[in-house]
Amino acid sequence: MEMLEIKKLSKCFDDLEVLRDVNITVKKGEVVVIIGPSGSGKSTLLRCVNLLEQPTGGEILYMGEDITKLGKRVTGYRKHVGMVFQRFNLFPLKTALENVMYAPIKLNKIPSKEAREKAEELLQKVGLESKANTYPLALSGGQQQRVAIARALAMDPEMLLFDEPTSALDPELVGDVLEVMKKLAKEGMTMIVVTHEMGFAKDVADRVIFMDGGYVIEEGAPADIFSQPKNERTKSFLARVL
Ligand code: ADP
Ligand code: MG
User: What topology in the membrane does the UniProt record assign (predicted)?
Assistant: First the structure.
């Protein structure tokens, strides 16, 4: 079964049509990378999947259920879907460990000892066990982003959405974050990743989707999209970024 089925999704902000007739399916364990120029609707798409934005039309089925009709049960749905943003959005007055512990305690009522042990494990997983007691401002951007990933993982998500997770980082810090994401992909995490890191897309994606002007223009295996794009718009975008 498909984990996520986006059908005829549209989103307007007043007169501005940002997503038009978007159809995307994601299977459990798949890594789907979304590429496309700035303003093409990539962030809005992820925000619709997480219901940070309410779609204007169409359906988003998660495990067969239309999430746009969940009403109050949206909180339960959001727990299954983690999101990692371009700007890490950590709580500045909490340490790395406290950032990771927070949601499980607050939302899942996990006892704090248990949450702490799990948070320590997750910080180890992202290579930051030595920074547990450090505050975000004393961490590099790459370290902050890895804490943000650990924080998303703390809720045991079934799917992770990444919105340009390395775009705000100095180039030398990008690699460590991509390594963590690769590890998650290998472990079978279902991921939708908006990124300009074409190397990551080639190595890790099961499928690459090219968006432009609110439409999905082309999708396929990375080898096909990168070496023989069919659409002229895909070709000219790739010619600019590769
Ligand atoms: P991308 O992530 O591909 O750069 P976005 O989804 O951020 O694209 O934006 C797509 C278009 O939607 C842009 O023209 C942007 O200005 C517009 N947009 C995004 N969010 C809003 C909003 N909350 N209100 C009005 N316009 C928005
Ligand atoms: Mg964006």
Answer: Peripheral membrane protein
